[in-house]
């Protein structure tokens, strides 16, 4: 019986002093040296992400199919259809070094726990700054990051089964979800943050506080989707498919409408722009403003959390909050309703009755 072909893997060539990707008879150089294992693993993940999946005649037993093939097939079929392609590629790059050489029958609770422990180890990588300078960066993945990556592995296995690559589905054991953070900003903190923020960051903060939308929805908002006559903002592009990260549309509060009218004189197609150009990420701008203001724990998501918390504190009902912020009623009840003056009001009224 012929030996099964090994999946693509890294191999260090001493004669060339670099890591190479060995895939059957094919060998591809990575141009990374012995101490650049992390970069070589990223190159392997990129290779697997763009590798065309093998054509199979029928479903395979889990012991006959490698997870590298499963991940490659998932990226090939779903990569262009997923809104957060960058996040998907990042997750594949993290999963590939550990899982790619293993077959699907290796997916068990013990191996998933081992993956979580491996990701929790601090790793040092060399990154290139915008000025061309190389710096070392040491970081470890949090349990929530490992959970998200294993979720991608689960989605890949589900896709493999639905496409007839696997004879039966395989369950991935996910780490327990962490407790939700209840960090929201006071009005004094917001005022200090706005005073210390640059103009484009200030625009983002105000949009986030009045709309409660995710950072990506705000940064991608163009003036063409701001209707001043009807007083509405459409966060979703016409024809764009709705995802779990819902965007929807809102009626514009009069305070925000006044800000938008003043900002309309700024150049650029996007409402939040820097030097008339769209912005991909606002995290650095938010962090610097928070540092200048002396406020800890401020992120774009905290601004969204603050917007919904303030609205619920003012007495907004679960249904109205869910509709305006385009968030499920279950999420409103779970994460925000305890801030409402109406929280457990009916129960308290009945319990306090004398008869």
CATH superfamily of the largest domain: Intergrase catalytic core
Q: What topology, given as strand order, has the largest sheet? A: 1-2-3
What kind of sheet is the major sheet?
3 strands, antiparallel
CATH architecture of the largest domain: Orthogonal Bundle
Kindly state the number of beta strands.
Answer: 10
Determine the structural class based on helices, strands and strand pairing: alpha+beta
Task: Explain the overall architecture.
The protein is α+β, with helices and mostly antiparallel strands and 355 residues long. The protein folds into 2 domains: 154 residues, no CATH class; 161 residues, hpI Integrase, Chain A, CATH 1.10.443. 44% of the residues lie in helices and 11% in strands. The chain is built from 14 helices and 10 strands. The strands form 4 sheets. A 3-stranded antiparallel β-sheet has the order 1-2-3, with helices on one face. β2 and β3 form a beta hairpin. It is globular, with a radius of gyration of 25 Å. The termini are far apart. The mean pLDDT is 86.
Topology:
Elements: E1 9-13, E2 18-23, E3 26-29, H1 37-50, H2 67-78, H3 85-99, H4 109-119, E4 123-128, E5 134-139, H5 143-162, H6 187-196, H7 199-211, H8 215-219, E6 226-227, E7 232-234, E8 249-251, H9 254-263, E9 273-274, E10 277-278, H10 283-293, H11 300-313, H12 318-324, H13 329-335, H14 345-351
Antiparallel strand pairs: 1-2, 2-3, 4-5, 6-7, 7-8, 9-10
